[in-house]
Amino acid sequence: MTTVAARQAAKPATMAQALQRAMRDAMAEDPTVHVMGEDVGTLGGVFRVTDGLAKEFGEDRCTDTPLAEAGILGTAVGMAMYGLRPVVEMQFDAFAYPAFEQLVSHVSRMRNRTRGAMPMPLVVRIPYGGGIGGVEHHSDSSEVYYMATPGLHVVTPATVADAYGLLRAAIASDDPVVFLEPKRLYWSKSDWSPDAPAAVEPIGRAVVRRSGRSATLITYGPSVPVCLEAAEAAQAEGWDLEVVDLRSLVPFDDETVCASVRRTGRAIVVHESTGFAGPGAEIAARVTERCFHHLEAPVLRVAGFDIPYPPPMLERHHLPGVDRVLDAVARLQWEAGS
Amino acid sequence: MTVQELPGAASYRPTPPPAWKPRTDPAPLLPDPEPYRVLGTDAAADFAPAVLRRLYAELVRGRRYNTQATALTKQGRLAVYPSSTGQEACEVAAALVLEERDWLFPSYRDTLAAVARGLDPVEALTLLRGDWHTGYDPREHRIAPLSTPLATQLPHAVGLAHAARLKGDDVVALAMVGDGGTSEGDFHEALNFAAVWQAPVVFLVQNNGFAISVPLAKQTAAPSLAHKAVGYGMPGRLVDGNDAAAVHQVLSEAVARARRGGGPTLVEAVTYRVEAHTNADDATRYRGDAEVEAWRQHDPIKLLERDLTERGLLDEDGVREAAEQAEEMAARLRERMNADAELDPMDLFAHVYAEQTAQLREQAAQLRAELDAEAEGDHR
C-alpha cells in the first residue's frame, strides 16, 4: 500500500473520520475508485462517513444512487467488470439484505466462475451491530451470512487506526471485501495520524490487543472494547486475560488464534451475533480441532441470544457486556485444570 | 362551516405547492400498439439485402446449432440445454447489431447469441456441459457470463455501460432477459438505474410466452412488457420477435440511440419457445399442439426465406449453401463435444481468491492426497 504523502502529527480522530480519510486517499490515488450508495453524496452518508467526497471528487466519483440495494450492488458489479473499483455503502446492516443475491450469486463467484479472468475488486461497506439505540432493522450482526459465502473476504475494524488501514487494504484488494463497520464505534476516538496505517498488516491477520496468561478472549469489531474492559476488570479476580482481535473473519487467522490458545489453555469467543450457528460456533470448533491437547476447559461462547434483535429499550440485556464475559471466564474450570 | 370559511383560515393554510406536471412527456415513450414488422411489408424493400442474407445464413446456422445441442443432451454430452429454437431471430439480431467494443449480457438460454457474436460454441456450452461455469474470458469477447439467476445480469449491464460512459468510451451494453425475468426485482432496479443514469443500455426482452410452464398472463397485467418502459422514463418498443429484419432494425435503432447519449431502451420481442423449457421439461403438461403448430407457421427462418425468395434475393442454391454451412458447423461441434472434457479437480481451489487462503491450501492438499490414493488404487 502506498503511504500517505504528508506525515501528520497524531491527534484525536474518530473511526468515522478515519474511514472517510481512507476513501479520500484511495480516491485521490486511484481514479478507478468510485464510492456509491444511498445518501453518500450531498449528505455525506447518514453516519457522515463519506462526508466531503462528492464535493472533492464530483458526483460521478461519489454517487447518490436510487434507493435499491440490489441495484446498487448489481451496477457496482458491472462497473467492476469494466475495470472500476466500486466502494458501495449499504446504509444499515439489515438494509443490505436485498443485495444478498448479487453478493452470493455474482460478487463472490465471478472470479471462480471465470477461472480468474474477471475478478471483483469491490468493497461493500456495511455499518453493523447494535448499541446505538436503533429501532428494528438498524442493529443486526449479519457477519455470519457473509462468512458462510466462499469467495468473500469479511473484515471488521475495532480501532481507529485499523479502520483506516483495513479499508485501504480492502479497496486495494482484488477480491470482494465485505467491510463491516461497528456503528457504535463510529464515534470512538483515539490519537491517530493518517500515516500510522503504514504499519497495518494485510487482510487476514489477527492481532493480540492485550497479552495475558490465563485465558484468551477471541473477539472482533464492537466486542473488542468490551473484552479489553473485561480483561482489566478480571485482573482484580486474579485472571490475566489475553484479547485477540480477529480483524478479519475471512480469511481466518488460525495461526494467531491458536498460538494464543496454546499459550493460555483456555478460550472464550465473544461476539454480538447470535450464538447458534454464529461465528463463535465455527471459531470454537476450529480451536478445539487444532488445540485440543492444550485446552484445560471447553471453548466457551459469549454471544447475543438466539432472538431477533431486541427493541432499543431492551438491547442492553442482549448485548454481551463485561459481566457476561467475566461470568464465562469464571466457568473455565479453574479448579479442575490448575 | 368549512375550514376555508373560518376566520383567519388563510394563515394556517399551507402554501400552495408548485403546479404538478409530469417529469417527462410519456407519449413518445409508448410502444406501438402492434408488434413492428418488416418482412412481407413495404419496409422490407428499404432493407439492405446484404444484412438480410447475413441474417438468413446465421438463422439457419442457429437453428442447426439448437438441434445439435439438444441432440447432445440425449447423448449425455450436455447436462442440460435450454433451447432457443424458434427464437433465433432475436438471438442472432442481438449479436449482429453490436460493435466489437460493445458488450452482450446473455441469460442461460442465450448461448446462440454468444455464438452468433463469434464465441466458440464449445466455450459457449461449457456451463451446460458442466466442466466449468463460464468457459470463456468475458473481457476478451465482451460477453458477460451466461446468467442463470433471472434478471440479475441486467444491473451488471447498466453498471458496465455507466462505467464506460464515465470513462468516455462509446460502448453500448445489450442485456437479454425473458418474459418471466421481467417479474424479478432486479429487472425493475436495472431499468430504473439505467434511466436515472441515462446509461447506454438496450434491454431485450424475449417474450417467448412461457416461464417454464407459467404463461405471460400469470406473469403480468401490463398492457405489454414494452409498456413497462414508460414507468421508468425510457422508450418501449414492441417488435415481432420472429421477424429477423424487424428485430435487427429496432435493436439497431436502440443501440444507435444509446451510443449517441440518448439513454436506454426497452425492447419487447414477441416470439415463442417452440421446444420445452429444457430437455428435462415436458411441455405437453401445460400447452397444446395446436398452439405450437401455429407458431411453427410463423417460424423466423420461414418468414425470412419466403421474403428473400419472393424478392429474388435467395434461390435454391443459396438455401442449400446455408444448410451446408450449418451442417459443417454441427459436425464440428458434435465431434468436439464427443471428446471427453479435460478436468483438473485441483482447479476447484485455484480461483476462489486471488491468493489461496491457508484454509483452502489445507483442503486442496486433502483433495490432492485423495486423488493420489485413488490413482494408486487404480494401478493396483
Automatic annotation (TrEMBL), chain A:
Q: What is this protein called?
A: 3-methyl-2-oxobutanoate dehydrogenase (2-methylpropanoyl-transferring)
Q: Which organism is it from?
A: Streptomyces roseolilacinus
Q: Which Gene3D superfamilies match?
A: 3.40.50.920, 3.40.50.970
Q: EC number(s) for this protein?
A: 1.2.4.4
- Check the record and name the SMART domains matching this protein: Transket_pyr
Concerning SUPFAM superfamilies, the annotation shows: Thiamin diphosphate-binding fold (THDP-binding), TK C-terminal domain-like
Tell me the GO BP annotations in alphabetical order: branched-chain amino acid catabolic process; response to nutrient
Cited CDD domains: TPP_PYR_E1-PDHc-beta_like (cd07036)
Q: Where is the Transketolase-like pyrimidine-binding domain?
A: 13-188
Q: Which keywords label this protein?
A: Oxidoreductase
- The yes or no answer to whether the keyword Oxidoreductase is present is yes
Top-level lineage group:
Bacteria
Molecular function GO terms recorded:
branched-chain 2-oxo acid dehydrogenase activity; magnesium ion binding
Q: Which cofactor does it need?
A: thiamine diphosphate
From TrEMBL, chain B:
Q: Which organism is it from?
A: Streptomyces roseolilacinus
Q: What are the recorded GO MF terms, alphabetically?
A: magnesium ion binding; oxidoreductase activity, acting on the aldehyde or oxo group of donors, disulfide as acceptor
**Protein name per UniProt:** Pyruvate dehydrogenase E1 component subunit alpha
Classification via CDD domains:
TPP_E1_PDC_ADC_BCADC (cd02000)
Q: Where is the Dehydrogenase E1 component domain positioned along the sequence?
A: 69-329
- Superkingdom as given in the UniProt entry: Bacteria
Keywords noted in UniProt: Coiled coil, Oxidoreductase, Pyruvate, Thiamine pyrophosphate
Q: Which residues form a coiled coil?
A: 316-377
State its cofactor. thiamine diphosphate
